[in-house]
Amino acid sequence: MNVVNDQAEANTPSLRRAGQIDLREIAIHLPGKTRFEAVRNISAHIDAGEFVSIIGPSGCGKSTLLNAIAGYLAPSGGSLRVDGEAVTGPGPDRGMVFQHNSLFPWKTALHNVAFGLKMNGVGYRERLARAEEFLRLVGLTGFSDRYPAQLSGGMQQRVEIARALINNPRVVLMDEPFGALDAQTRERMQQLLLDIWGRFKPTVLFVTHDIDEALILSDRVLVMTCRPGQAREEIDIDLPRPRPENIVVSPEFIALKKRCLALVRDEARKSLIDGLEADRIQIPVEA
Amino acid sequence: MNRSGISRFFTSFPWFLLSLPALLLVWRLAADRVDNPVLLPSPNLVAESALELFGDGSLVADIKASLQRVFTGFFIASTLAVPLALLMAYFLPLRQLFLPLVTILRPIPPIAWIPLAILWFGLGDKPSYFITALAAFFPIFLNAFAGGIDVQPRHVHAARFLGAGRWLMVRHIYLMSALPHVWTGLRIGLGQSWMAVVTAELIAAQSGLGYMIQANRINLETQHVLTGMIVIGMLGALMTTALGWCERFVLPWKFQRQ
Description:
Structural class of chain B: mainly alpha
Oligomer: heterodimer
CATH superfamily of chain B: MetI-like
Strand order of the largest sheet of chain A: 6-7-8-3-9-10
Radius of gyration of chain A: 20 Å
Strand content of chain A: 15-25%
Radius of gyration of chain B: 23 Å
Largest sheet of chain A: 6 strands, mixed
CATH superfamily of the largest domain in chain A: P-loop containing nucleotide triphosphate hydrolases
Number of helices of chain A: 9
Number of domains of chain A: 2
CATH architecture of chain B: Orthogonal Bundle
């Protein structure tokens, strides 16, 4: 635990505040025969240390937006800055947790977690000690020598989180990281994530299709429209932290949930109607 | 005994202790019936032949000659095929240039190269090196190529997010992704090489197990022919088993199942 805290304290105040994300009129077109418009004109500011979720109907471009912030996709318009610097590609200042297992199967849990430190030139002993510490943090003491194939889905996802966090990234991008887990494991992982977020306070951008999850975790929820994805509404989640498990039955939570559900359903219905009309008159959807 | 106990017994019982004597018995009965040691020598005769050939040192010399050819050819093939295949997997222009050539050359069996091998290298070790290397090359190449293109984008992305530079990316992601396929290629390649050496020696050599079989056929010493065949089979099986055993050290993550 000291490994972790020392590191946080060593950071200068300016560094600790780092992790602001600025999206200005972002447009994203996916390459293909018809340049598919995935995201249209999204602007948002995310403060350092904020936890923001993005929700919206399937195919609305929420993952696409995240991938642009990650640096895989270059936006076709607008500007995208992290701490004032334009994003040009994936980099260790942003940690990414993927939906599908992206652990290296040929490395043990310990070496998976230590990988980022190795890339940053941390010595062998120190990086293994710190990786061990992070495994403990995600509740995987004693599993260091297991290969990913020997771990359950939830455990793999925990290793994945530890791996993404060990470089102390300013921004953590998460693309439905718990989407493949069962309900109970998912709940535990959410608590674990909140716990870790509380310790390090990175900026978290969390894509999910699960409204409960977004509400439990976030300071703010960004609802996107059906495609091309635009910002439909931003909802501040003023629920007190730490949020107990039974918060999901509190009237405030239910009110917020109703509002989000209505927005997402409305958008999903629109995209369904668009789809049906496009099918009936048999012309390709305008790109 | 419970169900799992029974199934464990059935899977772990050394069944070859039954099948091997059964084969010997059938062989013995057949040999008695044929009653012609040139057409089918009995197991006893072959055992005597094996003792004789071991005793005078000729069998060991032949084994040495064959093994040396296989390992030389195999070594040449793997040092060429693995880097070539990976380069072609990673660089599209190289792939477009050379993959069609591989596609045309691959179906030509090693035995079809023997005339050329003799013309170019004469008789002896050299044409055998050529043939064993050729036989091992294609399985190693094709598997290594499959390994090279099997690298998962999600692993590459993850590594880039963790700050991997070019060299570390190659070492930790690209090569490690390819390793299981490369290993498969090496295993198959060694087997192909072993089969090819016998073919090469039948025609283009003056020593080795293939040559020994051929020479004894001409002398109608069929029991020696069978000894040679059995030694070839056993050494091949030994190599396969040895490589299978090595796999747990080369690919430890494939072996640590719960």
